[in-house]
């Protein structure tokens, strides 16, 4: 990979990691569902009027929009709102990689080999350590919500594979139009009409920054660059860099919110990142060392 592209990939993982803290900043002013709804409204408008619809079935576009906007980021925002720190949310969300393996086995009939099972076991140890954290950065309901979001992210991975689209930027823009309405409906049912009548009253500079950061650097720019890199280089060259996301997530939470990073969190991070490495590259490493599986 060229040095310029490598640095660009690092920048994207940094943006994605820090984004969890930016979400938390937005939650100081706005309801989590309103915050997420505004993100995806601006991801789609006005771009949808200028970008051609991807050549895939609408059922994939709609389902992706609901799962990615509501099931993933709406629930992540809710999980952070209910007490999971930004850093821990970025780490827990990595469980989507293991859920994706399970879903691929169920829906795509892909084999779940012994190395992937081993990786999942390591990740469970990491999750056990996260549950034992007592510094207030993890709550039970928040943890459950982030795991639900991770499961939603796994389903979006399956949808992308089933849809077979290569133009993921167009796919993202068109899918995003189906996220805001259900998010706004959830905001109404959970908080009432006050979240709408007082919206501009709470829309301070911090909330505006949070929304714009999530829309442009994180979603539109981030996914556009990342998908271009995936087309330009082998997946094996690009994918490992994404392992930096939870590291930047924890660092962002430390510097912005002064989250404590103790031994337990370091061990949990090490276990989960190690599990991701085994899950993604264990077979290649094994074959290189032993020549056969």
Residue fraction in strands: under 5%
One letter per element, helices H and strands E, the order comes to: HHHHHHHHHHHHHHH
Helicity range: over 70%
Shape: globular
Structural class: mainly alpha
Number of helices, counting only DSSP H or I runs of 4 residues or more: 15
Q: Main beta sheet: strand number and arrangement?
A: none
Euclidean distance between termini CA atoms: 28 Å
Uncertain parts: none
Q: Into how many domains do the coordinates divide?
A: 1
Using the CA coordinates, give the radius of gyration.
19 Å
Keywords: Membrane, Transmembrane, Transmembrane helix
Transmembrane segments: 7-27, 33-51, 63-82, 88-108, 115-134, 140-160, 167-187, 207-226, 238-257, 263-282
Domain EamA: 7-131, 141-280
Main location: membrane
Would you give an account of this structure?
The chain is globular. By secondary structure, the protein is mostly helical. The chain contains 15 helices and no strands. The protein has one domain (3-290). Helices cover 77% and strands 0% of the residues.
